[in-house]
Amino acid sequence: MMADMDVNEVEVVVAHSERATLRVGDVFVKVDADQNRIDVEVEAMTTAPVPTPRILWRKPPALALAALPGSALGRLGEPSAASPAAWAAAGAAVRTLHDAPLPPWPGRSRDEFASRLADECEWLVAHDVLPAEVVTRNRRLAETALRPWTPVFIHGDLQVDHVFVAGDEVTGIVDWSEASRGDAHFDLAVLTLGHPEHLGDVVAGYGADVDHDLVRAWWSLRCLTNVRWLAEHGYGSPDGFPEVAVLRSQP
């Protein structure tokens, strides 16, 4: 969300059958077919105790947000140019969010995760996306994440490119439509997915006990349950997905 674009240029940031995000100058316009997601996003941004984009206006089905200064912490599948201190600052921001009062709406249950995990693993094997042994190995690992947890206020989709930094400071976190109550390790896993070299930096900034094995388990679960959605929404062949590379690399 850099502020250097010609105001006359329209950039399609994200576009698929469920939602689209357009950028015009320093304004981002999100159009979502599901107004519940927009409701959650607005409430989460107004209550989360971390920097978020300024809401300019809302007129269903659209939401306009001001650009954030700085640049994304990184991109999935690409090396991050951000400093270890910036990654640690991201961890500290996540801890602030997790220490906040719970949002009033629930998140996904362990049963919901388990059901989707089973369905997606079957799809991956049936469509020969990955060898059965890779799916089985990752499924066993993913299932260890589905233990009882104490819920916290989670972002719910804390991809590395949803965290913006300037230097070593977090300037804002975007895309709050999946915010809910959930497992703290889930946010930490999504943030560090594909960037295991920065897990230590994030945990240092987070400043609390973090089970690295649970983070790795959520890496497997996140990847196993995302591949089909990406394939069916026009993101290319699964062979090129960073998520598939993560699944192949998991021990």
From TrEMBL:
Residues 47-208 form the Aminoglycoside phosphotransferase domain. One of its GO terms (molecular function) is transferase activity. InterPro entries: AGP_Transferase, Aminoglycoside_PTrfase, Kinase-like_dom_sf. Keywords: Transferase. The keyword Transcription regulation does not apply. It comes from the Bacteria. Pfam families: APH. This is Phosphotransferase enzyme family protein. It comes from Micromonospora humi. The lineage of its organism: Bacteria, Bacillati, Actinomycetota, Actinomycetes, Micromonosporales.
